[in-house]
Amino acid sequence: MGPFSSGWTEADVEAVIARGDPEELLYVPIVIGMNADDCDRDWVERILIDLSSHPHFNVRSNAILGFGHTARTYRTLSLDKVLPIISGALTDPHQDVRDQANDTANDLLIYLGVVVPGYDVRHTEAFFDAVAAFKRQHHLE
């Protein structure tokens, strides 16, 4: 995947961050978020927090996505730091960031039982209703 197609180390991630190229940076949150259990959570969160305010919308969007992956993996986050970021992303000027913020807020509700300020919990309720309907329709209950 991008600069990490042949594997990665924390040093590789730090090198991409140091170069600052948005075309590479957009991969960082995905790589560390999807593999958060292989990393120190504080390190992962620090990077995601830093990238969540990046000027490029793809980098911001993927940083918000990374919080959702980290919540799923660790079942915890530094909520005092992360909740205001996700809440703010719900009103980001770019639609992609807002969409990721909604998905991530859904993840935090599912995996942490936490409601992100500004998140419409009806999205999560609709998701669970759709899953239940699918199970009934396919006799999976």
Describe how the helices and strands are arranged.
Layout: H1 10-19, H2 22-25, H3 28-34, H4 41-51, H5 57-74, H6 79-89, H7 95-112, H8 122-137
Helix pairs in contact: 3-5, 4-5, 5-7
Structural overview:
The structure is a single chain. The N and C termini lie far apart (38 Å). The chain contains 8 helices and no strands. It has one domain (2-137): Leucine-rich Repeat Variant. The longest helix has 18 residues, at 57-74. Helices cover 67% and strands 0% of the residues. The protein is globular and about 50 Å long. The chain is mainly alpha-helical. Helix 3 runs parallel beside helix 5 and helix 4 runs antiparallel to helix 5. The chain has helices at residues 10-19, 22-25, 28-34, 41-51, 57-74, 79-89, 95-112, 122-137.
In short:
Helices cover 67% and strands 0% of the residues. With 141 residues, the chain is mostly helical. Helix 4 runs antiparallel to helix 5.
